[in-house]
Structure formats: C-alpha cells, structure tokens
Amino acid sequence: KKKRKTNDNNNNDNKIQAKVAVVSNLSVWDLFQSGILDTSQQQSALKQKYVQEKLATPVGKSFMHLHVGFRMTRQELDKLQAHYIHVQDWSMPVDAADNMALLSIPSVHDPTLAPDGYAVLHIYTPATEDYNI
User: Fold this and answer.
1) What is the pLDDT of residues 6-48, one digit of tens each?
2) What is the C-alpha separation between 131 and 19, in angstroms, rounded?
3) 45 against 114, higher pLDDT
4) Residue 121 and residue 105 in contact, taking contact as beta carbons nearer than 8 Å
5) Angle at the Cα of 116 from the Cα atoms of 115 and 119, rounded to 5 degrees
C-alpha cells in the first residue's frame, strides 16, 4: 500500500516510515529540519555525519527553471535554433542577478520529445538568483 507524506506541521501522528525512499521538493536544509525524516535514530538510512555535512553546506545561488509545452508545427520548428540566450545588460557580468536567461527548445532536434504539433521549451537562469526569494 502506497502512502504519501504531506505537510503535517510536525504532528507526529501523521508521520510514516518510508521503506524505500522519500521524494521531496524541500531543500536539503528544510527537509532535514522538517521532522519528516527521523535522522536521529540509529536505524536511519542517513548517517549522522552525512546529515551534518549537508546542513553545514552554505546556501548558494539558485537556478530558476520554467518548462513549457507549446503548439508549433514541424515547419515552424525547422526555422528555429535549439538554443537562445538573453542578456539584459552586456556591461554587467553574466552572473549578475536578473541579467541573463537561457532558452532551450530541444524539440528542434528531437521531435519525439513532444506530440505532433507541439514542442517543449526550457528557460532558466544561470544560478544567479538568491535561494530564498
């Protein structure tokens, strides 16, 4: 029987013991401090040294990603390149906040990535955004 863990506001009655894995979109810092995983027990799959090393890792800059499916014919895709870059201000470094975005349309090269008449787009920033925004 599959069980799903949801935000329980640290209500211990809602905790489950994962037998295989925990899938989470929390940061490593938030996950280890959330109470979802019991990292203090001897039988924990995560070694205390591993947990402590991860918690001590400084927060770095973050990527922002957007994945989109959109309508486009093969003929229209054939007129596009697979990769584009936008730089807001070329006099600023590429790692300046909000200065650069990269755009990838992999469907240009591989039509199997989306149904006929559609394409996929991935746009992202190059690890220039503060993690906590």
Assistant:
1) 554 555 555 556 666 767 778 888 887 777 776 666 556 667 7
2) 31
3) 114
4) yes
5) 65
pTM above 0.70, yes or no: no
3-state DSSP of 4-70: CCCCCCCCHHHCCCCCCCCCCCCCHHHHHHHCCCCCCCCCCCCCHHHHHHHHHCCCCEECCEEEEEE
Asked whether the beta carbons of 69 and 118 are under 8 A apart, the reply is yes
CB 99 within 8 A of CB 85: no
Alpha-carbon gap, residue 51 to 80, rounded angstroms? 46
The residue among 109, 125, 101, 107 whose CA lies nearest residue 70 is 107
Total number of residues shown for the chain:
133
Mean pLDDT of 91-104: 89
